Every structure is written in C-alpha cells, then in structure tokens.
C-alpha cells in the first residue's frame, strides 16, 4: 500500500468536456488502483462536494469549467485537501485565453496576433487586420469546443456567433500555419516536444478524440538547440501563470520557424489519445509512473 491515504479521482463534472473527462478519469483511477493506491471515483455532477470530507488527496481529472478554472481548486483549498495540478490563480488564468495572452504579452513571450470580438465589432476590418485564415474561439472553453477556422472574407461574423454561444468573451486569432506542437511539464521536468499533424484541416475535437489518423511526432523534428530553447520558454510561460504540479503548453510555428505560445492546459487529458502521457513515454515514464508522479506533486496553495 502507498502513503497517499484515501484518494478521490475527480472526473466527469458538468462542463462541455464531460465525455473526455470520464475517459481520462477512468484510466487514471485504474492506474492508481493497479498500484495498490486506495483510489475512488468521484463525479462532482453526481455527488455533493462535502462528500469529499475524509479524503486525503484529490487527483483532478476534470476538464473545462468547474474543473480546471479554479473553482474546484478553491473548494479543495477550503476543505484542506491537497490536489493535483495548479492552484486557484493559475487555473483561472490558464482557462481564460485572453488573460493568459495579457500575461504573456507583458512578459515579452511570443503570441499570435489577436483581437477581442463582440456583437458590435467591425468584422470586415478585423479580417483585414489579422489576415486569413484566422481562428475564432470562446476564451474560456477547451477541447476546441466552439472554435471555427475562418478561411474566406465575410465568415467572421458567423464564427463569432458560434463562439459566443459558449462564452461571451470571444477571441479572433491570426492563423499561424507552420505546425502545431505541445510540450508537457511534470514537476520541474519538461517533456519532449510533440508535433501534431491532423489529417483534418486543423486539430479540432474530432482530430483530438475521435480519429485514429492524427499523427503525433516525437521526436518532433525541430533542431535540438531550438527544441531546448522552446522547452525552457514553455516552462517560463507555465510559471508566469503560477502553474505548478503538471500541465501542458501548446504552441504554433510559422513558416519561418518562429514559435508562438497559444495556451496552457492545467488539467491535461489522460486518455489513450492524450499528449502528456505520450511525451512522458518518450522520456521513459510509463502511464502508471506518470499518474503516480502527478499524485505525489499534489499540494495546497
């Protein structure tokens, strides 16, 4: 038996990413139980949070709102239960793509050009300023939910309306089309970079979770010196938001080989398609060891 005590694996929840969370959490639960850890499933959509009293640790495998936006983290703080991943501030900041961008801009980290949208925006002018293609996204959703790739003039308004169904805060972001990459962080260890090559037009929900023809390249193909520089900057970007424990930093490359940081995921997926387990495997850490290490890093603010 371990010295972790009684562990709650939080998954499911009420966000738009519930299905992905159920997949992640069930795998995490099995990996913990397989190592003799006293782990139990806990779905906040089906149980009141005060039922967590008596647990010694919480492994957060919730995705999206109420799971990785600081709210569940705050509840666990009040109950004095150590939990995996980032604290309240970092979770809230990372869930908000607009405020993440503001922090990174202030620190001088490279990000794609963007504009905030509202119903009164001059959509034609923004298309002209940012250029096409561009991506429109709800600022506080994940898993590409509500995201549209705008490829032709005049499409921005409809893309805004779709994103605004999910969140009143909507961003238009210049398309950076030289490649999609991600880098996982576990404690102080920055994992090898993974290049993502979707068979679809871009890395949408289907490509992330449903399809088997998305390619993941690790080694990612970047020169070693460049990879090490980006990995160091990714850790800086993560810590700039006060990230801790573990997480994932996504970035894009343009055609000239310049990188732009996109967002931080503070409760990364742990499904069979997920990227942090892939990066950990490339670093010599299997799924069970990764899950255990993340649980070891559980803390309170």
Describe this structure in words.
With 301 residues, the protein is α+β, with helices and mostly antiparallel strands. The protein folds into three domains: 6-84, Rossmann fold, CATH 3.40.50; 93-110 and 177-296, ATP-grasp fold, B domain (D-amino Acid Aminotransferase, Chain A, domain 1, 2-Layer Sandwich); 114-174, ATP-grasp fold, A domain (Dna Ligase, domain 1), CATH 3.30.1490. Helix content is 34%, strand content 21%. It has helices at 18-33, 71-78, 88-95, 97-107, 123-130, 156-164, 205-210, 224-240, 275-282, 287-296, and strands at residues 6-10, 38-42, 57-60, 114-117, 134-138, 148-150, 170-174, 180-186, 189-190, 194-197, 215-217, 246-253, 259-265. The protein is globular. The chain starts with 5 loop residues before the first strand and ends in a 5-residue tail after the last helix. The mean pLDDT is 93.
